[in-house]
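Memo to structure team: turn this sequence into structure tokens by end of day. - J.P.
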Amino acid sequence: MTSPLPAASLPDVSRDEWLLDPDVAFLNHGSFGAAPRAVLAEQERWRAAMERRPTHFMGDELPPALRAAAARLAAFVGARAEDLVFVENATGGCNTVLRSLRFAAGDEILVTDHGYPAVRKAAEYVAGRAGARVVEAAVPFPTEDSAQVVAAVSARLGPRTRLAIFDHITSPTAVIFPVRELTALCHAAGALVLIDGAHVPGMLSLDVPAIGPDWYTGNCHKWLMAPKGSAFLWAAPERQAETHPLVISHGFGGGFTAEFDWVGTRDPSAWLSVPAAIDFHGRLGGARLRERNVALARKQATLLADAWRTERGAPNALTGSMAAVRLPLCEPTTTERALDLRRKLFDDHRIEAPVNAFAGALWARISAHAYNRAEDYARLAAAFRP
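Reply from structure team:
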């Protein structure tokens, strides 16, 4: 990543571009995102068009409009339009792949302990029905470098590994995984690879085919600021014939995009608004915005760790525009306690920031986006005293 440009080189962004509560320090863009007013207005325009002439819209306007939106998104992530389809979220994308594959007794699905819990449960469900099993690679945390991730995966990769699932950026710990190296490692062992890139579009520059996985799924409603329920699934050309949507409908047998583009009546406005989100992202600076957000997250994570006399979960090289910082607390590190602390932050301090229990400690996960300022993180620092 190049050195971030000074803030003066970016457009001046008002928090009023979003509907966010002005009294809340919103440090949790990573969970559900926040769509700006301009993108929400585009979504309403599409909804109005759909309701004005429902039959004509669904039958004649929607098919080319959906492919045009997919083509725009594909270009943004370095892919071909014919290799990309829309799904509601990255968890749905992972479920789509898991339910498309046929596992046999003795097969293994490799995950890491940093993986998204919902995807882990989906893998366990699919494995259990087939007599396969889920194998976990324990990645050290705090994570010092990419070599630790590769070593942990290599130690659990075996001849029975049918599929490996890796987060590109981990949700509970905010670590950037070396997905290109992990993909090559697994392919060399004969395993298929699914990358859960839920947090990547709009946070990091992305060239999906260059990573080399069999499947890649990512959310647009997080860092790209599209409306809720907009995500994509990319499949390598050689994997598309075996990849089917969770709902089989009229498009079955018509090819990869035909199967996914129509699975029945639903509201496609979030997907059709993705080009507007890409435009808004570009208006705020595009790559320069991404660099600014990463620099802000790294700086504020270090300041929080210094203020609390604790530590960050990962070095700058493995940190994007989210970061985990250990809280200065000596108490039970349970999921229930983490949830209590998150609620307390909101109720007592009007701060939105997730708290996660991981590796025997409690961690605050901060996010940095265009509307965040240094004072947001200062409020969080003051909420916990070492």
